[in-house]
Amino acid sequence: MSIRVFYLWNFGITPKVDVGFKQVIQWDIPLLDGYEYEFVPNVSTNPGVHHLLGLQNPSLVSQVKAYHPDAVLLMCYNYASIYSFLMNWKSREIPLLFRGDSHRLLKPTGIKAWARRQFINLVYRRFAACLYVGKANYEYFQYHGVPNNRLFFSPHAIDNDRFFAQADDAQQQAMLWKQELGIPLDHAVILFAGKFENKKRPLDLLQAFLAANLSQVSLLFVGAGSLEAELKAVAAPHKNIYFAPFQNQTLMPRTYAIADLFVLPSYGASETWGLAINEAMCLSRPVIASSHVGCAEDLIHHQHNGLVFSAGDVSALASSLQEAFSDRQRLQIWGQEGKKIVSQYSYPQATQGLEEALDYVISSITPSQRQVRDSVKVR
């Protein structure tokens, strides 16, 4: 199987401002090795994935056509370029697949929600098959009318092997980092790592930590964003709360290794999965997540490798922190069980789902469609 990736923007490859982190980011691990790719020129005056017009790539259709694919997989649709692509691509000749991670854990109501559902239903009719990343995403596709026989499991995953291989070194590095940050060595650490923004709810975690009144436990915030000043102001009068700046990819194993517990308290529909949970579990860390985190139903087995609390409920989060630290030996067991669970959410499993979807759509092509496709390839 031959694959070519068409990039609509070069974020991460070259230094760009990340809207959420409020700083320039360039990832420090290889992103373009081992596969074919093309960059499609983006003519947007304000490029980025934070708004509809951030991706405007007039040559997208022509560049993809020139590759003569048997099928095209899209990873999103809510951008100007993708809408244009969907309108201009002849999907009867070359089928389209879609892989997304949206969910309906927070269910909107009213006329706008109804109208949006009708629109999204029409969008998904353009796809011959859809790849779902987890249970909440599967239910989302069903809600929007995608039949079961066109749904294929392709789980959200990270490079598990990279994290597994670095676990021992990361643990040693984390002990040194703990000293550098001034965290008492006999303290357990609760970790928040990500963007300091409203949808991630870091303030909920800070308030819950203060309410939980845990003995010999510190709270560490790692990252940056619009709430940084407010977080530090609220934390200032209190002990055992620490901050570290944004950590690039090569430092993320160390970042999770410093933790005894990782917490993702997000609220709303925007936390469609939460890959930080995958990363923490790869380092054998127990996890707590809100009920709005897309991966919670898949990756967190309640009281087996972590806990799930009601999103936005600070008291429930404080109780979860207290429960987690009521048995510190159990926390270690939770971490070990989490590593077993996340091992099944890997690149090979994601690839298997894609291969099954491709087999389905290609076998469904009629002889007349196949003749048209083949004539295009011959030209």
Description of the structure:
With 379 residues, the chain is α/β, with parallel strands linked by helices. It is 41% helix and 16% strand. The protein starts with a strand and ends with a helix.
Précis, in short:
The chain has 379 residues and is of the alpha/beta class.
Tell me the span between the first and last alpha carbons. Answer: 22 Å
Main sheet, how many strands, which sense, barrel?
6 strands, parallel
Residues in β-strands, percent: 15-25%
User: Strand order within the widest sheet?
Assistant: 11-10-9-12-13-14
Query: Tally of extended strands?
Result: 14
In terms of structural class, how would the helical and strand content be classed?
alpha/beta
Mean pLDDT: 93
Low-confidence runs (pLDDT<50, min 5 residues)?
Answer: 374-379
Count of alpha/pi helices: 14
Rounded radius of gyration (Å)? 22 Å
- Give the % helix: 40-55%
The best one-word shape is: globular
What order do the helices and strands follow?
A: EEEEHEHEHEHEHEHEHEHEHEHEHHHH
List the helices and strands and how they pair.
Elements: E1 4-7, E2 16-18, E3 23-25, E4 36-39, H1 60-67, E5 72-74, H2 80-88, E6 96-100, H3 111-124, E7 129-132, H4 135-143, E8 151-153, H5 160-181, E9 188-195, H6 202-212, E10 217-224, H7 228-235, E11 241-244, H8 252-257, E12 261-264, H9 275-282, E13 287-290, H10 296-299, E14 306-309, H11 314-324, H12 328-342, H13 347-363, H14 367-378
Parallel strand pairs: 1-4, 5-6, 6-7, 7-8, 9-10, 9-12, 10-11, 12-13, 13-14
Antiparallel strand pairs: 2-3
Helix pairs in contact: 6-11
